[in-house]
Amino acid sequence: MTELPLILAVADSFLDPTGPAAEAQLKHLNLVMLLTFIAIIPPLLATPWILWRFRRSKPKGKYRPNWDSNPILEILMWGVPLLVVTLMGVSLWNITHRLDPYKPLGKDPLEIKVIGLDWKWIFIYPDEGIALVDELIVPEGYPVELELTTDTVMQSLRISAVVGQIYAMPAMTTKLNFMASDEGEDRGMNTQFTGEGFWKQKFDLYAVSEEKYRERMEKAKQSELQFTAENYAILAEQGTSEEAKKRLGIEGQKGAIEMVLDGTNIFERVLARYWSGKPMTPESQPGSPLYDPKKSLLPPAPEKPLMQM
Amino acid sequence: MVDPIFGKLTWDSVILVQEVEDPNLNTFITSGAAGMIPVGAVLIVVLLTWLKWWKPFFGWITSVDHKKIGIMYILFAVIMLFRGVVEGTLMRVHQATALNGGFLSSDHFNQLFTTHGTNMIFFVAMPFLIGLINIAVPLQIGARDVAFPRLNQISLGLTGAGGFLITISLLIGEFATGGWTGYPSYNGSLVNPGVGPDYWILSIGLSGIGSTLTGVNFAVTIYKMRTKGMEYMRMPLFTWTALCTSILLILAMPPLTACCVMLGLDRYLGFHFFTNDMGGNLMNFINLFWMFGHPEVYILILPAFGVMSEIASTFSAKRLYGYTGIVAATMCISVLSFMVWLHHFFTMGQSTTVNAAFGIATLLISIPTGVKVYDWLATLWGGRIRFTTPMIYLSGFFILFVMGGLSGVILANPTLDYQIHNSLFLVAHFHNVILPGTLFGILAAIHYWFPKMFGFRLLENYGRATAFCWIFGFCLTFLPLYPLGLMGMTRRTVDYSDPAYVPLMVISGVGALFLSLAFILLLLTFWRSIVHRKKQQNPIGDPWDGRTLEWWTPSPAPEWNFAVLPEVDSRDAFTTAKQNGTAYQPIEKYEDIEMPANTFYGVILAVFVCGLGFGLVWYIWWMAIASFLGCIVTMIVYAFIPSKENIIPAEEVRRVDEAWRREAREGRGITRDDETTVANKGLARPDELPAI
């Protein structure tokens, strides 16, 4: 039983991968370690041996105070690391391109938009017309594309067991494509320090069957909560999703906050907030200690797409 | 809102007042630390008065002697190290107990990791290394002083001013919470309007200017002041690394200054360089910061590599293996260090080709670094190794540093970085490089050059115990962070909810206590050695059978370093001279020596810079303006005062130098077997060379 916690911990990490990307990463980790061992095992073994063999109190080898070069040794010293780095460089180049987080993993991926806030994540399903807070539910074995931004400081969304992480930054969007290969539950989190509640910024990832996914979506659509600019402003206040429930008046409700989209593209409006050409005031900037949800309404949705960064 | 006289400063800003108003464990810890500042200040004043040391005290702080400046840098670093170790231990012990809540508050913990990082990099590692460079380089190249002695004092003053700001933040106000890298927009005025980020910007910005000046000073010193025959390819390795470090300082510190200024403009004057809105872009900060930050890593490690080279050669009584290779490797590392900064943000969403290119560039650095390790091992091969304290640090370094290399290579892979970026794996990696690399190098160097600085050796048994404690404490503290990072634990978490982390966290916490013990032992080493300094003396100046010029002077070295500048005709010039029997031959002709006189220039500037920084942090505009004007006026006034010189008459030089040479010629010296005993008076009898 004492081993149980350890297994649990690995279950949320890429050491026990549940997606093809994390699986490839784990393999690559092993390859990198093996290759590096070629270069570092010799000094690890040689250090104690040389120290022992040539100790002044009882030396074994010949004393050669003026010996300071040897062509063969020199070639080995530069050559072996060069060879190792070349091999590793090739594999690095290949796998970096293969695991590009911007590359969709299949045709027509499920598009989910993500807004990072202090200290919670909002997942918007535009096609389904719903949004979830701190819960990401995806059909297993189906390609997913996350498009991320934040409405506060920089964050980094990581889902260790499936894919890894990518930064999310205000006024900009980034992408993370992934696929969960089996049904199961994992955890994702923010890894970039964002202040006091930073460590609480975690969410659940559920990879489920197509059927269960549909069920979940239908349930979310029944929610009475609308994803309006007003409700969004309340969500944007600092605090975890549990604290947000209180502010939204749904205290005690179990599970993630579910909202129905109001058709005004909150995600684009969050981005547009920073492209309005007007400076942000402390009252309108989520994350600021003076932030006031009443004074921080989002601008209307932009007519043409914003500049992409 | 801002008071015209006191700015933002109120009684509540003083930590000790906060403790009275809201007593709890956190304010108790902070106020305990804060209380040490006034108590320490009073104690120093009392002590100086009691011992009637005011005169020597002013003699030291107005000195432009590179050796004294170096010693002051090191003293400063030891004091700052005290704070860094306490903070580190506090954090590790806190995290060991942090499952669902430890004893520190979130805000307190966040300030701790920020000050710990800032302090350790800028006010411990850098001053230590710059101090060692100050002490050793002019002696190693056979110079009387650095190229710009007064500038040297100003650099020290600026570093001290930065140290003042980060220290006073303990007592008055707060420090930033955004980590030592201080990323906006978290550290911008909208999200963090408090004084913390201002303290951060000003302390590292001002000391950064000091470091740039040091770089200029030592680059010029090494280019221009080498003694006759000291060609580039005859320079000791430490001097080589000091040269590369100086160049890195000149090129890498300005981006830091620039991003401090830009962030300052954002915060103070509402500019939009790095804000979220109005076209500001935090990525620009991150780019600029790491354009400094990555070379900075090599600023920290290269001089330590130099130390390792000197020690490997001296304590195995052998020539350095692959001198040319090591020099080439050092240059490679210096150049490559500017080409890899992007690996600090692989996960920022740039194209894969960019990521892959920077990943491979990062891998390339491991080649010259690996070569160096192999070269040092080859230096030991065929030697006669003595296990002095520096050698123990060196052995620990060999084993542990290659592990740091392994984790560095892992992190260099963007694919893997997507997983372990921002995790404890990263924390483990850089501590794995900086402790066994930089810190062990520094401590080894202190043991190695201590007799040169003060004229007596540190006690070996204490030194060895300390070294083992650092090595053991390091392993226990930081190696468990690797698996924790792979398991997904992020850095900078005040709290966690996964019980699986606990066992490793506890081991790490215990390790931190060992590191604290190591620090206490280090202080004890100094203390006991000072008590026994009479027995430990080595006036002749060559306790380790040294190979380079710095050992060819009495200990401590006289103000003028060399009575007559030595001539060099090979790499290990002093070894050659000892073998030929020409080392201590009498000199025929002595001349008057001109040395720069003491000055208050740097001291006055430092006081004004402290005022400028403090005034800016607290919006005390009159203080900031007055201090700034003070700086300008000081510089103008000193530009017009003709710089004074001390003329040391030839007779006095002759008297000191002849006595020393005579003593060395007449003494029998000791072999390396008695090196660590009281018989070691600094006259080495080299080993019999085997017949070739």
UniProtKB/TrEMBL annotation, chain A:
GO function terms (MF aspect): copper ion binding; cytochrome-c oxidase activity; oxidoreductase activity
- Recite the UniProt keywords alphabetically: Cell membrane, Electron transport, Membrane, Oxidoreductase, Respiratory chain, Signal, Transmembrane, Transmembrane helix, Transport
Boundaries of every Cytochrome oxidase subunit II copper A binding domain copy: 107-219
Alphabetical list of CDD domains matching this protein: CuRO_UO_II
Where's it found, cell-wise?
A: Cell membrane
Where does it sit, as one GO cellular component term?
plasma membrane
Q: Which domain of life is it from?
A: Bacteria
> Which protein are we looking at?
Cytochrome ubiquinol oxidase subunit II
Organism, by scientific name, is Puniceicoccus vermicola
Please list where the region (Disordered) is annotated: 277-309
Transmembrane helix found in the keyword field = yes
Predominantly, its location class is: membrane
Q: Which residues form the Cytochrome oxidase subunit II transmembrane region profile domain?
A: 6-103
Q: Does the keyword Zinc-finger apply?
A: no
From TrEMBL, chain B:
InterPro entries, per database record = Cyt_c_oxase-like_su1_dom, Cyt_c_oxase-like_su1_sf, Cyt_C_Oxase_1
Q: Name one GO molecular function term.
A: metal ion binding
- Which residue spans traverse the membrane? 28-48, 69-86, 120-142, 154-180, 200-225, 237-265, 285-308, 320-342, 354-371, 392-412, 424-450, 462-482, 502-527, 595-614, 620-641
Q: Which Pfam families match?
A: COX1
Q: Name one GO biological process term.
A: electron transport coupled proton transport
The upper taxonomy is: Bacteria, Pseudomonadati, Verrucomicrobiota, Opitutia, Puniceicoccales
Q: Name one GO cellular component term.
A: plasma membrane
Using the record's annotation, list all stretches that form the Cytochrome oxidase subunit I profile domain: 54-569
- This one is known as Cbb3-type cytochrome c oxidase subunit I
Q: Which domain of life is it from?
A: Bacteria
Task: Alphabetically list the UniProt keywords.
Answer: Copper, Electron transport, Heme, Iron, Membrane, Metal-binding, Respiratory chain, Transmembrane, Transmembrane helix, Transport
Q: Which family does it belong to?
A: Belongs to the heme-copper respiratory oxidase family.
SUPFAM superfamilies assigned: Cytochrome c oxidase subunit I-like
